């Protein structure tokens, strides 16, 4: 499992999750769900009442399917300019504070 994870609190108060990666040979075995739930648990404990969001390239259909499966709602679509000088469409997914809290409660059982 790759454990590269990054969190940040955005200016709008939501928790931004970044860099969710599972080793290719370990995909589809529940690790991504575990990592996301771990992030929800951290967010609910450290920043109760805050939503969690993340951004994914629109063409990353595998990650998008995963986020939809785990209840993420599309809250924004935009085109991002990358430092190398190219533009790519990006989709933002959000889990509201109630969902984040419920997932934390499930983990604690
Ligand atoms: C996206 C990623 C983190 C998902 O992790 P994972 O460990 O493979 O996902 P899980 O095994 O925990 O899957 C959880 C659920 O999502 C579903 N799912 C996962 N990948 C899916 C896919 N490509 N298509 C459809 N459903 C998918 C699983 O079937 C499972 O559903 P279930 O509730 O019916 O069992 C992983 O594929 C990955 O590291 N991808 C490459 C890096 C990347 O793109 N990261 C996102 C950057 S924003």
TrEMBL record:
Give the Pfam families listed for this entry. Answer: Acetyltransf_1 (PF00583)
Residues in domain N-acetyltransferase? 1-107
Enumerate the InterPro entries for this protein: Acyl_CoA_acyltransferase, GNAT_dom
What is the protein name stated in its UniProt record? N-acetyltransferase domain-containing protein
The organism is Nonomuraea longicatena
